[in-house]
Predict the 3D structure of the following.
Amino acid sequence: MTPHVAAPDPQAGAAVKAADRAHVFHSWSAQGLIDPLAVAGAEGSYFWDYDGNRYLDFSSGLVYTNIGYQHPKVVAAIQEQAGKLATFAPAFAVDVRSEAARLIAERTPGDLDKIFFTNGGAEAVENAVRMARLHTGRHKVLSAFRSYHGATSTAINLTGDPRRWASDTGTAGVVRFWAPFLYRSPFYSENEQQECERALAHLEDTIAFEGPATIAAIILESVPGTAGIMTPPPGYLAGVREICDKYGIVFVLDEVMAGFGRTGKWFAADNFDVVPDLITFAKGVNSGYVPLGGVAINAEIAATFDKRPYPGGMTYSGHPLACAAAVATIQVMEDEKVVEHAAHIGENVLGPGLRELAERHPSVGDVRGLGVFWAIELVRDRETREPLVPYNAAGEAAAPMAAVGSTMKKNGLWPFINMNRVHAVPACNVSESEVKEGLAALDVALSVADEYT
Ligand code: PMP
C-alpha cells in the first residue's frame, strides 16, 4: 500500500527542527553533530518528511514497528481504551492487562505462562536477572560478546559489544563468553557443526572456571540482533538448554528484538525447538505504539514467588494503553497472518533478493538472517573479510558506511546501519513489491560500497 503523503511544508519542518535542536537531548548521539530528519507522518511501511520526501522504512524504527505505522485497528484500540480507562495502577486486575497477558502467554513456548510487564526491553532484562538470582540464590550472570541487552545499568553491562564501553561500571557477577558466529568465528571453526560444538565446549569451560554453583543465569539473544543478526548454528541453543539443566542455571532468551514475528515465528526460539526458562520481550509485542515490554516466566520460577513477594515493579507496568495496543496488535497479526507472511518474505523474497545482490557486489562479505531479520556485512576484501569500516568506527572511519546510507536515503530507502553492516529489517507485514523497491535502492547503494573494495 502506497500511502498518501501530506503536502510539503518546509516552514513547519524548520520549526520542528529548531525546537528539537534547542531542547531535545538525543540518545546515543553527540548533540552538536547530529541533524535529525523532521518526520511529518508515517503509514504502513513508509514515513515522510516536511519537504515531501518519502522513505520506505527498512529499519522498522528501531526494529519494532512489526506491523508498520498507524495500523488503523491498533490506533482505534488505543483511542477506545483511552476513552474507557486511560490508566490504572499495576496492583489491580484490569481487563485489558489480563487479556494481553493471556494472549502473550498462549504464544510463548512451553510453560512460560506468567507475564511480568515492563515499559521496555532493558527493564525486562533487569527483572529477568533479578528473578533468576532470587530463584537460584546465586549471583553470576553469563552473557555473550556481540550482544545487546539494553541501556540500563545491568542490561548495558550484560551487553557484550562496544556499546557498553562508555558506561561500563563492571557490574559484579557479569561474565562474558563467546557465542557462535561462523563468519568471524572466535573458535576458528570451518563449519557450523564445528562452531556449535566448540562454542558449547567453551561455554562449559567458562562455567567450570567461574564455579557452576555461583551462576544464576545465562542470557542470550535467540538470534543476536543489533550485533549482527547471527543465526545460531543448529543445535547450539538446545545445547545451552542442556548445559543449563545440568548445572541448575536459569536460561534466559532475550527476544526483545527477535520476538513477535520478526523471524517468521511468534518467538525466535520456536525456530530452534528450544524452551528457555524466561523470555524477555518488548518492541513487536505492540509494534511500539505505546511503550511495553515484559518477562514471560515458566511455572517453576513463577512458583518461587508464590508465597514470597517478588521485589520489583514499575509504576506503569502493564499500562492499559500499552496493553490495549498489544491485544490489538496480536489480533491483527493473527487475522492478517503476519507471522506466516514474515516467514514467506524471508524465504522467497528478501533472503533470495539479498543473496542475488551479494553475487553482483564484491563489497558484500556475508548475507544472513531469517524472516524479516537480515543483515549484510560489507567488507573491503572478501578473502580477508576486512570490515568496510573498523568495528566501533566513528567520524572519518565511518565515511564509507555514511556514503552507503546517504545513497539509500536519496533513493527513498531508510536503512538500519550498524558498524559495517546494513540490516534489512522491514515490518513483518511488508509487501513483496515494497521489498523489491527496497532491494533496488540497496542495489544502487552497494555500488557505492563496491568503490571502497
Ligand atoms: N534486548 C535486545 C535484544 C534489544 O535489541 C534491545 C533494544 N534494541 C533491548 C534489549 C533493550 O530494549 P529497550 O531499548 O526497549 O530498553
